[in-house]
C-alpha cells in the first residue's frame, strides 16, 4: 500500500495545479488580451463560468454587436450590463460591426475600436495591471496596487445584481430602462438615486433626458443614501442614519454560494422595477419553467402611477394600460377601430384605421356617418377640452358625435359628468375600480374607408394613370395633362370611375371622406400674403408658401396654375373631386383648390424640411437611419400608387426634387404635375420621353410600352443616391469610373467592395450589411429589361429584409439617360 500513496497524492496535486491554473487564467485578463465578435475569443468568463464579458450579437441585426456582461449559463444569456457612450449629453449603447476589436493594450488601457481603427469606447481610467470578470457579474479593471480602478457595477445600465450598491457621487446614480427588450437604446423610464437623498422613478421624454413628474419616490433627504442589493435577496434604500426602506425582496430564496437561483433586479421597459429569479440547477428547472420569474416589483400598478401633463403615460398615445395580475406584466391596448403604429414598439401608440371626421359636416351628416362605441372601466384623465354636468350618457354621445374636434368622450355615471377629449389621448388605463365609461367615435357600419386598404372590388375595375414631367412637350400636351394631376401633386389615388354619369354622382351618405375644400381666391391671396414667398416654379406654374386662417394656423403650399385652357375646365373639376378622396402617408396631401374666374389654384400640405434634393446633397451628410427611413417611405408610396389604390398611377418622374420631407423627415412623393390618362384596363402606353435626366428608364428610348417599371428604375437610382449620399451623375469627379453612380455601384458590388461606395461614412460602414442589401435591391431595380425588375411590393419586402435577395444579374449596360 505504501508505494501507492505518493502516486495518488501526486495525482491529487496535479489536479489541484490544473484547476488552479485554469481558474487563474480566467480570473486575470492580462495586458495584450483581446476580443473580437467573430474571432476565437469573443468573451471573457468569470471563474465559475456564470458570467461573461464581451460581444453579444444584437437580436434582429446580424451585423452589429453590443459590448456587454451577461448570464452565461442560462437560456437566452440575459444581458445585465452594456457599455454606453455619450454625445451631446445623450447616452446610447455602444454598437459595433463584426470586425471591431476590444483590447487591453500593452500599456494597460482598455480600448474598443471599430474597423477603421477609431476608438469608440474606453473607460476613463489610467493604465491598469489587468482586468477581471467576477462571479458577481462585475467586470473590473485593477491597478498595480490590487485595487479596482474601474468596474461595471459603478456604471449600471438597466440592471443591478446581488452585492451591487448604487452610491451617489457628484451626480445622481441612475438606471435607465431599455426602449424595448431587444432595443438597448435609452427607454422611457429612469430610476435615480439622487444627491439630495431621495430615490425617485421618473418617466422620460423619448430621445432626451427630460424628466416628467415622478411616479414613485422614497421622499427622503440626506447625503450618503444608497440603493443596496444584498446577498440575502433584498433590495433596499438606506439612509445615512441607518434607516432602510424596502424596495423589493426575494429573501425566501437561497442566496448563499451554493444557492439554487440566479438573481437580478431590472428597471423594465414598462417602467416597473422588478426582481427576478432563475433556477440554477436542471433539477430546479424541472419543477417549473426555465425562465426568469418576477417575485417582487415596484410600483404595484404602473398604469395608474404614471400620470404626465406632457407625454403619453405608461403606454403610447391613444392606447390604454392594463395589468395582468397573474403574471404582474403590463399590457397596452388600442381601442376599437384603432391599431398600433408598430406592434413590436407599442410605446409609439395607436392610430385610427379610418379618416377622422371633417369639420365641414353638419349635425345630420355627422350623426349619419359616425357613432360611439362604449368601453367600461377605462379612463384617459388628460386631453379633455370641455366638460358637462349634469348630463346623461346619450346627450354626452350626441355632443361628441356632432363635434369634429371630439374623438372620445368619458362619462362618469356616479356624477353624470361628461368630458370631451381630443387626439392624442394620453395616460390611458383600465381597472375594475374606474367608475367611468369611454365613448369612442368610429364610422358607422362599413361606410368608412380605411386609410391603408383599398377594396378588391375596386381593383377589378382599375383605371390607369401615367403622371410625369415631359422633357419634350408642346402646349397641347400641357393642356391635356396639367389639370388632371397637379391635382394629385400630392397625394391621392382616385376611386375607379367607369362612366361620366358615375363621375358626377354624389358620395354615399355614409362616407366619411370628403372632396378637397373649395377656397376663394381672396382666401388664398390672404393666406400667402399676396403670393409673396415663392417656394418653387415649373412649366405648369408657381408654388407659394402660405398659412390658413384656421384654428391650427395650418401651413400650406399653393400652386398657381398658369395658362389654363377653357376646354379642360370640366376635366379639371371632375378629377380634383375624384382623386382627392383618398390619401397615403407617403404622398403629399391635396387639401383643396380654387376655381374662381380665371384663377386655378391647388392647395397642398406644406413640407417643412423641403425636398430630398436639398436634404441629400447639402453640406452635411444626413443621418444613416434617416436615409433608410426615406428609402422605405418612397418605396411604400410607390407601392401604394402602383398596386394598392383603386386607380393605378405611374408617376414617371421620380427624382429627389419630387420627394418632399415633412417635420419628422417622413418622405412624401409629390409633383404629379403633368399627367396622361390611360384608358380603362390599359396597362401600358406608348408616349414621348418623360422624366428627368439621370433617372429615366431605358425603355423611354425604345419603341416599347411604358409600364410601372419605369418608376421602379427611377427608384433604384434614388436608392443608390441615398446609400452613397451623392448624385447619380457627377461628371466633375476626377475618377471617371465613378462619374456615373449606377456603373460605379455595380462594379463595387461585383467586387465585394461596398465599403468603397460608403467610404468616409462611419454610420453606413457600421451598417454595411444593410447598405449591401440596399445596393443589391437597387441593382435589381436598374435591370435594363423591365420584366426583370421587381414590383414595388417585392422591393419593399427586400428592403425590409422580409425575403431573401438573390444576386442581381450583371446588366450588360446601364442607360444613363444622358442621350
TrEMBL record:
Membrane topology: Single-pass type I membrane protein
Pfam families, sorted: B_lectin, Pkinase
EC number from the UniProt entry: 2.7.11.1
Catalytic activity: L-seryl-[protein] + ATP = O-phospho-L-seryl-[protein] + ADP + H(+); L-threonyl-[protein] + ATP = O-phospho-L-threonyl-[protein] + ADP + H(+)
Location of the protein in the cell: Membrane
Major localization listed first in the record, in broad terms: membrane
SUPFAM superfamilies (alphabetical): alpha-D-mannose-specific plant lectins, Protein kinase-like (PK-like)
GO BP term, example: response to other organism
GO CC term (a single one): membrane
Keyword DNA damage: no
Keywords: ATP-binding, Disulfide bond, EGF-like domain, Glycoprotein, Kinase, Lectin, Membrane, Nucleotide-binding, Receptor, Serine/threonine-protein kinase, Signal, Transferase, Transmembrane, Transmembrane helix
Residues reported in the UniProt entry to bind ATP: 560
InterPro entries: Bulb-type_lectin_dom (IPR001480), Bulb-type_lectin_dom_sf (IPR036426), G-type_lectin_kinases/EP1-like (IPR051343), Kinase-like_dom_sf (IPR011009), Prot_kinase_dom (IPR000719), Protein_kinase_ATP_BS (IPR017441), Ser/Thr_kinase_AS (IPR008271), SRK-like_kinase (IPR024171)
Keyword field contains Chloroplast: no
Gene Ontology MF: a single term: protein serine/threonine kinase activity
Family, per entry: Belongs to the protein kinase superfamily. Ser/Thr protein kinase family.
Name recorded for this polypeptide: Receptor-like serine/threonine-protein kinase
Organism (species): Hordeum vulgare subsp. vulgare
Amino acid at each position: 500500500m505504501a508505494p501507492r500513496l505518493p502516486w495518488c497524492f501526486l495525482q491529487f496535486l496535479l489536479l489541484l495545479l490544473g484547476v488552479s491554473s485554469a481558474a487563474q487564467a480566467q480570473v486575470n485578463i492580462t495586458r495584450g488580451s483581446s476580443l473580437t465578435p467573430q474571432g476565437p475569443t469573443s468573451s471573457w468568463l468569470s471563474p465559475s463560468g456564470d458570467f461573461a464579458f464581451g460581444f453579444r450579437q444584437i437580436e434582429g441585426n446580424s451585423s452589429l454587436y453590443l459590448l456587454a456582461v451577461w448570464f452565461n449559463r442560462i437560456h437566452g444569456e440575459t444581458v445585465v450590463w452594456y457599455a454606453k457612450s455619450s454625445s451631446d449629453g445623450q447616452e446610447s449603447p455602444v454598437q459595433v460591426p463584426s470586425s471591431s476589436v476590444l483590447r487591453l493594450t500593452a500599456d494597460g488601457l482598455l480600448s474598443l475600436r471599430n474597423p477603421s481603427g477609431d476608438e469608440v469606447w474606453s473607460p476613463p481610467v489610467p493604465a491598469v495591471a489587468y482586468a477581471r470578470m467576477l462571479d458577481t457579474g462585475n467586470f473590473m479593471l485593477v491597478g498595480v496596487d490590487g485595487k479596482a480602478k474601474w468596474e461595471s457595477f459603478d456604471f449600471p445600465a438597466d440592471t443591478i445584481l446581488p452585492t451591487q450598491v448604487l452610491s451617489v457621487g457628484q451626480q445622481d446614480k441612475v438606471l435607465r430602462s431599455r426602449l424595448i427588450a431587444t432595443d438597448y437604446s435609452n427607454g422611457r423610464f429612469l430610476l435615480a438615486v439622487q444627491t439630495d437623498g431621495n430615490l425617485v422613478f421618473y418617466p422620460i421624454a423619448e430621445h432626451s433626458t427630460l424628466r416628467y413628474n415622478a411616479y414613485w419616490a422614497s421622499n427622503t433627504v440626506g447625503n450618503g443614501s444608497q440603493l443596496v442589493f444584498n446577498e440575502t435577496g433584498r433590495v433596499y434604500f438606506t439612509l445615512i442614519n441607518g434607516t432602510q426602506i424596502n424596495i423589493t425582496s426575494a429573501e425566501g430564496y437561497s442566496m448563499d454560494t451554493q444557492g439554487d437561483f440566479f438573481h437580478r433586479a431590472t428597471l423594465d421597459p414598462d417602467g416597473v422595477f422588478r426582481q427576478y429569479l432563475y433556477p440554477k440547477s436542471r433539477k430546479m428547472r424541472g419543477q417549473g419553467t426555465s425562465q426568469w420569474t418576477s417575485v417582487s416589483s415596484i410600483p404595484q400598478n404602473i398604469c395608474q402611477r404614471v400620470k404626465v401633463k406632457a407625454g403619453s403615460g405608461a403606454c403610447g398615445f391613444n392606447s390604454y394600460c392594463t395589468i395582468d395580475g397573474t403574471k404582474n406584466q403590463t399590457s397596452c391596448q388600442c381601442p376599437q377601430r384603432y391599431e398600433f403604429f408598430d406592434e413590436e414598439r407599442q410605446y409609439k401608440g395607436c392610430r385610427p384605421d379610418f379618416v377622422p371626421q371633417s369639420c365641414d359636416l353638419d349635425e345630420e351628416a355627422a350623426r349619419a356617418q359616425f357613432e360611439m362605441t362604449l368601453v367600461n372601466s377605462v379612463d384617459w384623465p388628460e386631453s379633455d377640452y370641455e366638460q358637462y354636468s349634469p348630463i346623461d350618457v346619450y346627450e354626452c354621445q350626441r355632443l361628441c358625435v356632432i363635434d369634429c374636434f371630439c374623438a372620445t368622450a368619458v362619462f362618469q355615471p356616479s356624477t353624470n359628468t361628461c368630458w370631451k377629449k381630443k387626439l392624442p389621448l394620453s395616460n390611458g388605463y383600465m381597472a375594475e375600480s374606474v367608475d367611468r365609461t369611454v365613448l369612442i367615435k368610429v364610422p358607422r357600419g362599413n361606410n368608412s374607408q380605411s386609410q391603408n386598404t383599398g377594396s378588391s372590388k375596386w381593383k377589378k375595375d382599375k383605371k390607369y394613370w401615367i403622371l410625369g414631367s415631359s422633357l419634350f412637350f408642346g402646349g397641347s400636351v400641357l393642356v391635356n395633362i396639367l389639370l388632371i394631376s397637379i391635382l394629385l401633386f400630392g397625394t391621392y389615388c382616385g376611386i375607379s370611375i367607369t362612366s361620366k354619369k358615375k363621375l358626377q354622382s354624389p358620395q354615399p351618405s355614409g362616407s366619411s371622406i370628403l372632396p378637397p375644400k373649395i377656397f376663394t381666391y381672396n382666401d388664398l391671396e390672404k393666406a400667402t400674403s399676396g403670393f409673396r414667398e415663392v417656394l418653387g416654379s415649373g412649366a405648369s406654374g408657381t408654388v407659394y408658401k402660405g398659412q390658413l386662417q384656421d384654428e391650427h394656423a395650418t401651413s400650406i403650399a399653393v400652386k398657381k396654375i398658369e395658362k389654363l385652357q377653357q376646354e379642360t375646365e370640366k376635366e379639371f373639376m371632375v378629377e380634383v373631386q375624384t382623386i382627392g378622396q383618398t390619401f397615403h402617408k407617403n404622398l403629399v396631401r391635396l387639401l383643396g383648390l380654387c376655381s374662381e374666374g380665371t384663377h386655378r389654384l391647388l392647395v397642398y400640405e406644406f413640407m417643412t424640411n423641403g425636398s430630398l434634393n436639398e436634404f441629400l446633397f447639402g453640406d452635411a451628410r444626413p443621418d444613416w437611419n434617416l436615409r433608410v427611413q426615406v428609402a422605405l417611405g418612397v418605396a411604400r408610396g410607390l407601392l401604394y400608387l402602383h398596386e394598392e389604390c383603386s386607380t393605378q398611377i405611374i408617376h414617371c418622374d421620380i427624382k429627389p426634387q419630387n420627394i418632399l420631407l415633412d417635420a419628422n423627415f417622413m418622405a412624401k412623393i409629390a409633383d404629379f404635375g403633368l399627367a396622361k390618362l390611360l384608358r380603362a384596363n390599359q396597362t401600358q402606353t406608348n408616349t414621348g420621353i418623360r422624366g428627368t435626366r439621370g433617372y429615366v428608364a431605358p425603355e423611354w428610348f425604345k419603341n416599347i410600352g411604358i409600364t410601372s417599371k419605369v418608376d421602379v428604375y427611377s427608384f433604384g437610382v434614388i436608392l443608390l443616391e441615398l446609400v452613397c449620399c451623392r448624385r447619380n451623375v457627377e461628371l466633375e469627379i476626377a475618377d471617371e469610373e465613378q462619374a456615373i453612380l449606377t456603373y460605379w455601384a455595380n462594379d463595387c458590388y461585383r467586387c465585394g467592395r461596398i465599403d468603397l461606395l460608403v467610404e468616409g461614412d462611419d454610420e453606413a460602414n457600421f451598417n454595411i450589411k444593410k447598405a449591401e442589401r440596399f445596393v443589391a435591391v437597387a441593382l435589381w431595380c436598374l435591370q435594363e429589361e423591365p420584366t426583370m425588375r421587381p414590383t414595388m411590393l417585392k422591393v419593399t419586402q427586400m428592403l425590409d429584409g422580409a425575403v431573401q435577395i438573390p444576386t442581381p444579374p450583371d446588366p450588360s449596360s446601364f442607360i444613363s439617360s444622358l442621350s
